[in-house]
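Input:
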Amino acid sequence: MATVRKQAKSMKLFEPKLVSEALKQSFVKLRPKFMVKNPVMFTVEIGTLVMLIVCIWILAGEQSQGSFIYNLIVFIILLLTLLFANFAEAIAEARGKAQAESLRKTREETPAKLIQPMGEMFLNEIQKVSSSQLKKGDVFLCEAGDIIPLDGEIIEGIATIDESAITGESAPVIRESGGDKSSVTGGTKVLSDKIKVKVTVSPGESFLDKMIALVEGASRQKTPNEIALTILLAAFTLVFIIVCVTLKPFADYANTPITIAALISLFVCLIPTTIGGLLSAIGIAGMDRALRANVITKSGKAVETAGDIDVLLLDKTGTITIGNRKATHFYPANGIDEKHFLKCIVLSSYMDETPEGKSIIELAGINPLSYKVDNPKFIKFTAETRSSGIDFDNGNSRIRKGAFDSILNLVHKAGNKFPAETENKVKEISSNGGTPLVVSENEKAIGVIELQDIIKPGISERFERLRKMGVKTVMVTGDNPLTAKYIAEKAGVDDYIAEAKPEDKMNYIKKEQQNGKLVAMMGDGTNDAPALAQADVGVAMNSGTQAAKEAGNMVDLDNDPTKLIEIVEIGKQLLITRGTLTTFSIANDVAKYFAIVPALFIASIPALQGLNIMKLNSPASAILSAVIFNALIIPILIPLALRGVQYKPIGASALLQRNLLIYGLGGVIIPFIGIKLIDLIVGVFF
Amino acid sequence: MNTELIGVVAMFTLTVLLAIPLGKYIAKVYVGEKTILDFLAPVERFIFRICGIDSTKEMNWKQHMIALLSINMLWFVYAFIMLLTQGSLFLNPDGNPSMTPDLSFNTAISFLVNCNLQHYSGETGLTYLTQLIVITFLQFVSAATGIAALVVVFNAMRDKVTDKLGNFFDIFTKTVTRILLPISIVLAVILVFNGSPASFEGKDTITTLQGDTVQVSRGPAAGMIAIKHLGTNGGGWFGANSAHPLENPNYLTNMVEMIAQVLIPIAMIFALGFYLRKKRLAWTIFGVMTVGMLTFLIPTMIAEINGNPAITQMGIDQNAGSMEGKEVRFGTPASAYWSIVTTIISTGSVNSMHDSSMPVSGTMQLLGMMTNAFYGGCGVGILNYYIFIIIAVFISGLMVGRTPEFLGRKIEAREMKIASIIALLHPLLILAGTALSSWTIVNHPDAAWAVKPANWLNNPGYHGFSEMLYEYTSSAANNGSGFEGLGDNNIFWNITTGIVLILSRFLPIIGPVAIAGILAKKKFIPESAGTLRTDTGTFGIMTYAVIMILAALAFFPALTLGPLAEYFSLY
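Output:
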């Protein structure tokens, strides 16, 4: 399964299998019922039909419309324009479907072990049913080797689960009842142990179902930006309808007969067919890109909103810092031999299973077994003593390490003095964002271990990138304000919430939203759910609870907290691709006017040759070249539409300048060259 | 020629130098800060009291528009009846007749909408009474209407979420008393001292050097000529407009009238900067508009100064440039400059005959009205520009990967719908109108009207087409100038241009006010590093490109059959 997904990820833009499916769809989509949803292309379809009628009319003996071949070619090119546009949409859909297909395999009928309820109790009587028969609220049993039939929440037991079917990640994860890791997804496989799961969704609404529906475009709704753009494009289309319709009486006044083919060609060239043909492909490709990043979005709108995010809330642990603190320095007190100090801390950490304990031995670089001690007795960490350690030599050596106040207490109780330099060191470490771990031997303080959060390599560059995008980053941590401030500065986040309680996140989000900001956050726990729902973009981790997943509008299958950065970029890319291609499409009109308008009138007003600045061969070849260019530019731009225009975080004005230069000025110049080149070939025949 | 060009540069520089302090003053008037004309407050209070207006009641955008439309409706009925009956009223020393119903419909609308398309000649078509209490009155209130609508948009552009956008009558009245009247008085005095008449006596009779007796029309014209320019109205007292020696006696009055007509449109840009404390935005808008003006002005200058090649071929000296249709006392550059300024703003007064301009100049004059957003008419120029800003913001917002926002408000489907309709309206009215008249000429040349369609055009061919295109363009841009070869005082032209005039005046006012009103109620988003700034050169270029491609390119085929065909036939 994992391999299938990986393949899907590295899928080529034009996989032959997808292309043949898309080709078929290009014709199916010609049905007016589909076309009418895209006003720009719908008008092209009407134009194509008119050309078909004109061709038949000529066969029936009409003389005024030019040669049959010429009209037939115009008809064919217009048809191709339509097919190219449909193909763009179809190939984007096909790529989504290919992804969905690999998911669908996991959803196929799975046997489920339904546990029959008996009043309030669940008996251990098991009935084998098909997954499709499960209802919300049912409880089923899953044992090692079983495929989980439907999304649910573990109500009893613990199990290791292979989630590679949806995440592509082969390492198994642990899921257990209660807490934040209790949800399981249909289609994943139990590797060990046994769990009882309560179904949380209705059949057909499971996570996988939603995902498949989304990528297949079945539930794809137009986003607000897309609607606004469609309105603008419709307006452009209307302007050019007016331009072309009124041209007829103008030409009659000027005694210049205009053929229907020329008029329709002018119209099709002027309306923004490039963006009109690629618009829905761009939208589908955007969601597809999110999916490739292993993020499932509940709607296309969420992806778009992600591009607008102003504030990003990130948990410290796991996002900014590597999971746990690590020992970074040892500071023995005055008069304590360093070797002896090392021995003490290594021995005290010998049986310490915590990541901090392990990191101490790692830093010391000494194998604890190299010390010979008699009758070692390990003292485990308890919440009461807040220290751990080791007793040996029949209790004559007592080493402890723990929080400053607990060791201080221990030392003072025994009537010993706490060394001043050690106390200073403790304060220094705290103010540097570290955690001091004081070591005592026989109730005398002998030194301090410094534990530090390790900031993920490269994370500050990512925050810098976000800052350039105009996104403010906020770190959320349970640490005290001093530590939080230190880490925030070091990692380069703009703000932090220290000693954060779940409601603090919520309040912070509300405060920012009141100032008109859009806020994104990532979360996994049930107590994150309200904040996830409040945030404009809430990304839930797939490993999180059902509640968190319901509350957010995206789910990250990789459980990667830095994923938000990618999502923001995908959102921006989506808008940029639409904007630049719109600009390109409209800028193209300049050249097309200069190709077609002189061609329309040159026969009766020879002076207008001066307007034929491209020196196109003849009116017929000028018109054909323009419509051919207009048609060809669509498939040429399909890869760009699917991949998306690159986003560069260089500031809004600089980005506008760049894109205006490439797609605006480029959009003016390229068609002049393109049309001229096509004319060199077409001119041979016309 | 160099001296004449310096004259043009001086006129423009002087305009900007005057517009900046005036803009500051205008902003103060609407903010309610202290100004030197505060002694007029009792006059305004008196007006409010007799009209029963509560000038402190704040209105939302819809209430503003209801107020604007209803009072305009009232003025229309008043003007229509007056023109229809003027012949039998007093103050008519020359005994001019009443207007026909279709002409008075056209004239009433034309002056109501700040267009001043004149299908009559002032000397014979109007009486002193209607010149004063209909024409001059409408020239004041129509300019004030446009400015007031713009101030409503200013109010909506402030950084607070509100639907309270000031009181329409308060803004309107102050516009007349604090801005239009005082400046008009100054202008009128200058004109009177330079020879414009301000007499209530009828025609004068003079004997020329040749010994002929000539009847010279006159009247209380100076005041009307002042507001005609200041309010970007453009309708002349005399048929020949500001080419007439009594309406524009010398180079000095030419400069004064020239500066006066573009003064408020430019001052309003700076007023925006002072009022909203967004000076950079104001300068960006001013920059784009000035580049727009130069785009049209430079080709016109070159074409006019070089003169007509056909005349050069005849061996006639054209050192003075193309002098056909121009006044010797103004010369070529000053006339070329006037012809572009009067078309980009919606004045439409002329000091030379546009019909005689070179084809390139004709193209540029047409384009000035087709874009209709470079400086533009009093108030309405920036309103038109606002629509293009919204479209430019939308496209460029997408291009930088952010939901488009303008001054802290998100632009969404509803605003785009309104902006699209307004942007669409202008080409629709112009092209559909011209198509209708072309169709009529081709298919019904002998229709049984007072003037047969076949006789509408003085010039056949391309130039005739330009005349029709110009007439509708001038109507749709509420400009009022004309390619005067067109026989336009007949029922077809009076009615069709009348309809174009109404639609192209009020919809482009309602549209931007509605967008601004809707935006003002939306959540305000403070600027962040990711926000696309709208006060930069790059955004200015974007807006310029949108105006040129959207507004100008749509007319390319029409221009090709008119002035462009003429141009290519000439060279």
